[in-house]
Structures are given as structure tokens and as C-alpha cells.
């Protein structure tokens, strides 16, 4: 098995969550330093996406003096901020656009077997939500924090076909 590194996933990420477990993906860890009398003091901020792989996803941002406590704080916040995402089989019901700040994201449904075609930040959100086939494109800012927020904003706009039919009063095919 390959060790941890860029572009590699550990075995835990490949298996997916078990019943009752949540999938957590660390999107970004930032190191901040403050110059004090004795030198530099470092603190860490972690951005984590949490999901059950069945349509619920959330994000959290935690800060601490060490990396593990900051990730734990982010996971706790992510569990509190979970939202339900409308899905259609293994993809999304329709095309949707999301934006946050300077980040713009377009999510397009894809046929089965396509996979998640996305950058790392958008991919983390889609996989945590249980979306396995999707095409995405991001514009503007490449900041992972704003991309995650833009992606979640787009996913919150999704409506299942049944709801759209009921609202419009027509039958869609």
C-alpha cells in the first residue's frame, strides 16, 4: 500500500463510511505564526468536510495550537453544519451553479461510471455527500475554503424532480 502523500489516499478513505460513521476529509491546513518575545509561536487552522456518503454533508473550520485538535474542532463544527443534498442515483438531478466570494462553481450531472471530475476541494464535498458521477468546473478564486463554500451553496440549490413537478404543476419526463 502506498504511503501518505500528494494524490494518494489511505485505505480508510477508499473503504467509505460504515453504518453510522461519518466520512471526514481534511481540505486545507493553514499554519499561522505570531512573533513573540521568545521567537515565533505557531498555530494551525484546519478546514474539514464531513459527510455520511448518503446525501448529508457539512464543513467545519477549527483553530488550535496543534494540528490534531484543530481537525477535531473542525469535524465537530462540520457535524453541526450538515445539510441534506438532493441526489439522483449516483449523480445530481440537474445542472447548478454556486458562488461564494470570488469562487464560482458549476456542477453538471454525469452518466454512471464517469466518476468525480473535480479539483480537490470540490471533490471532497462531492465524495462526502455520496455523489459518485459528476462533472465540475471552478472559476475565479482557487482558495479551497471559498471553493468548498461555493460548492455547498450549489448543492443546497438542488431540487429533486418530484419537488420541481409539484411546484410547477406539470409532469417532467
UniProtKB/TrEMBL annotation:
Keyword entries, A-Z: Ribonucleoprotein, Ribosomal protein, RNA-binding, rRNA-binding
Domain S5 DRBM per the UniProt entry, residue ranges: 22-85
**Any single GO BP term:** translation
Write down a Pfam family by its short name: Ribosomal_S5_C
**Does this UniProt record's set of keywords contain Cell cycle?**
no
Could you tell me which InterPro entries the record lists for this protein?
Ribosomal_Su5_D2-typ_SF, Ribosomal_uS5, Ribosomal_uS5_bac-type, Ribosomal_uS5_C, Ribosomal_uS5_N, Ribosomal_uS5_N_CS, Ribsml_uS5_D2-typ_fold_subgr
Q: Which GO terms describe its molecular function?
A: rRNA binding; structural constituent of ribosome
Q: Report which superkingdom the organism of origin falls in.
A: Bacteria
Gene Ontology CC terms:
cytoplasm; small ribosomal subunit
Say if the entry is tagged with keyword Mitochondrion: no
List, alphabetically, the HAMAP family matched. Ribosomal_uS5_B
- Write out the similarity annotation: Belongs to the universal ribosomal protein uS5 family.
Role: Located at the back of the 30S subunit body where it stabilizes the conformation of the head with respect to the body.
Subunit relationships: Part of the 30S ribosomal subunit. Contacts proteins S4 and S8.
Regarding domains, what does the record say? Answer: The N-terminal domain interacts with the head of the 30S subunit; the C-terminal domain interacts with the body and contacts protein S4. The interaction surface between S4 and S5 is involved in control of translational fidelity.
NCBIfam families for the chain: rpsE_bact
Protein known as: Small ribosomal subunit protein uS5
